[in-house]
Structures are given as structure tokens and as C-alpha cells.
Amino acid sequence: MNISIKDVLQRIKPFFVLYLILLCGCFVIKLLYSKDEIYFAVNTRHTDFLDTIEPYITDLGNGWTIVILAAILSLYNYRVAFLMLTTFLLTSLAVQIAKFCFDAPRPKLYFKDQLSNLHFVKGVDMLSHNSFPSGHTLTAFATGVLVTYLAKNKNWAYLLVLYGVMVGFSRMYLSEHFFEDVIAGSIMGVFLAIFWIRWIDSRKFINSPAWNRGLLSRKS
What stretches of the chain show up as alpha helix (H) in DSSP? Predict the structure, then answer.
């Protein structure tokens, strides 16, 4: 089974088109406003409600969430679970390499002389290093690409883009990342997922009948 990049893009078309529109909007914002201006535009608009829900939203981009989801999916379909787990592992490795190479300061360190002016959410562990790019955002958008690729109903793409945006915003709201980190994370997540899906889902073994069963189906 030979799958091309064009085939993958066709299967994720609603997601990809909406993402490109979103990305263009982000680039316009970046052209109009500075890194500091964008950060404070988010940081100064905090509410008790957002302080409560954003830590939970950010966990939706946590690696353990994807690993647990892949484990559950393995009960029903090995191929889907394998695609999800390997997409996560590949993109996560790439983002960790990028973080190491750039070693960019996170807001807590970047604004170390202005900490009294910053809003931090209580109970959130604040990191100082490896800000660029955002790993949570990468995971959310890579997962969105994969789920859209696998879904029969492509209307899920709109919710999946929203999922990525919500996770990305949560990373800025919690002062774990800058706007630029989130943009870069989303770009890496989307394009690495596309290229990985194209390669791995073209392998003969993953499309065999045995891989389209799960742990529960084997027992039945």
C-alpha cells in the first residue's frame, strides 16, 4: 500500500485548510505586535474561571494522556494505537531536540526582573528553560492531524483544530510558553505528523488483517 503526501493531505483537508488560515492569522499578529506585547495581552487578562480550567486543558496535550489513549485504543485496533503512539514518540523526540538546540528561556526566566507584575496560576509548576518550541502544542496538533486522517467523519477536524488552539492558548495563559513557541510547536506537530503518517501507513505490515484487530477482538 503506497500512500503519498497528497493522499494524506486529501484525507486531512478540512483540518489542514483551517490550520493554514489560523497560521496566517498568527503570522499577522506576530508582524503587528512584539513578543512582550503578545505575552502581556494574554497574561493580564486572567480570571478565576480560566485559572481553574486551563491546567486541565493543558493536560490534554500531555504525553501521558496520549500514551493512555493509545493503550485504550489497542484494545480495539492495534493499527490505530500504533499510529497514535509512534506519531507521539517521533514528534516528541523532534521537539526535545529542538528545545535542546535553542535552549530558550521561558517567561519566568525571561521576565525575571518583572516577576511581581506577572500572573501565575497557583499549583502550576513553573519551568524556566527549554521554552521553544511548545511540546504540548506539538502533541495536540499532531494528534489532531492523525485523528482527522483516521476519522470517517471529517467534520471532527474543526473540533480537533479547536483542541490544538485550546492547548496552545493554555500554554501561554499558564506562562509556560510564548506565542512564538506555540506557533512553532503547531507547525512541527502538523508537518511531522503528515510525513510520518505518509511513511508508516505505507508499510505492508501495519495494513495486514492482524493489525486491524485489538486485544478484545482476539479474545472473542
Answer: 5-11, 13-32, 35-43, 48-58, 63-73, 78-102, 107-110, 135-150, 156-173, 179-200, 215-219
- Average pLDDT of the chain? 96
What is residue 124's three-state secondary structure?
Answer: coil
Write the pLDDT tens digit of every residue in 188-197: 999 999 999 9
CA terminus-to-terminus distance, the chain: 28
Taking the CA atoms of residue 46, residue 50, residue 56 and residue 58 in that order, the dihedral angle to the nearest 10 degrees is -40
Kindly report whether the peptide bond that precedes residue 133 is cis, defined as omega within 30 degrees of 0: yes
The stretch 135-161 carries a mean pLDDT of 97
Closest-CA residue to 137 (of 97, 187, 103): 187
Report which of 179, 191, 159, 218 is spatially closest to residue 9, judged by C-alpha positions: 191
Angular region, 161: left φ>0, alpha ψ -120 to 50, beta rest: alpha
Separation CA 198–CA 192 (nearest Å): 10
> What is the reported pTM?
0.96
Amino acid at 142: A
